[in-house]
Fold this sequence. Notes:
Elements: H1 2-8, H2 15-25, H3 28-33, H4 36-41, H5 46-56, H6 61-70, E1 74-77, E2 96-101, E3 110-114, H7 121-136, E4 140-143, H8 149-159, E5 164-167, H9 183-191, E6 195-198, H10 210-221, E7 224-227, H11 235-245, E8 249-252, H12 263-270, E9 274-275, H13 279-285, H14 305-313, E10 319-320, H15 321-328, H16 332-344, E11 348-352, E12 355-358
Amino acid sequence: MKYLNALNTISGLGAKKMKLLMSxxxxxxxIWTASYSELLKSGVGESIAxxxxxxxxxxxxxxxWEKLQQENILAVSLDDPRYPALLKxxxxxxxxxxxxxxxxxxxxxxxxxxxxxxxxxxxxxxTRGFARDxxxxxxxxxxxxxxxxxxxxxxGALSAKGKTIAVLGNSLDKASIAPRTNFxxxxxxxxxxxxxxxxxPVKTSASIGTFPARNRIMAGMSLGTLVVEAAEKSGxxxxxxxxxxxxRDVFAVPGSIFSPQSTGTHLLIKAGAKLVTCAEDVLAExxxxxVEKIPEKTANLKLTDDxxxxxxxxxxxxxxxxxxxxxxxxxxxxxxxxxxxxxxxxAIKNVGGQNYIRL
Length: 359
């Protein structure tokens, strides 16, 4: 694994070339010590053969390996039983993946949730709700730690005390986690028994070119991909199309016909993606209804009788405090303190203008 990790730091040596080399040499140490002529015989081509010869001279194998140990990062190759099972099945899988966290996440059914970085209030509610309910049903939610839908998907799973996996377009060392504003979220995922995964060696920064690579891992390792909000040219559609290429299910949540953020999801539905309106739709389609469920969050909220009244009248559609007062027959002054306490408990959310939704 030390030699594989060192080889993985050589620029341009992607999964296809790595597989070709391993098939020819059958041993990563032999690749590392091979002469230029021997490398050429493997079929990798003159450019890659020369890169290996040139770059390996400046790579310290032990130092590169020590970087992984310091960051508690596990390197796993394609022939390792710990390698994500469904990812093994796709034709363009990475030869080497790096993981950090609880590997038992990979034993659960995996469903990817992707969508716009510029999600609307509707998209935020939908994403969090789907992720929470899927996690409550024993599913591990997979997403990409990006702004918008990705972050909300991870947060939704964490709110249910469920499992979530972040697939990154950068390496897993703390200094490289991106976007930096979601660094704490990556730490929360690990603290919650989740997992971080990438194909990039330490000290690899995110770039335009790394995100398509990340997307194929998300689509490839998951049973299905759920698209919540996506504009007409959203990168989420790339993930959805990859999922279709890998013979995986694609689900799409309908949105407003007036919202540009739903144009892409509506195009997916027109093209044959399965329209879903709740987590149960996804579970039924994938025949996961029998998955062992995690106790729902609401069972652990410890609400008072008045709080239960308020919680019952609320839904994912916002409701003004005056309307809540009328429906519950509680005084507005009482309602204000009840709502404040329920928000602290994480049961509801103030979405502005004294309007509240259930979480």
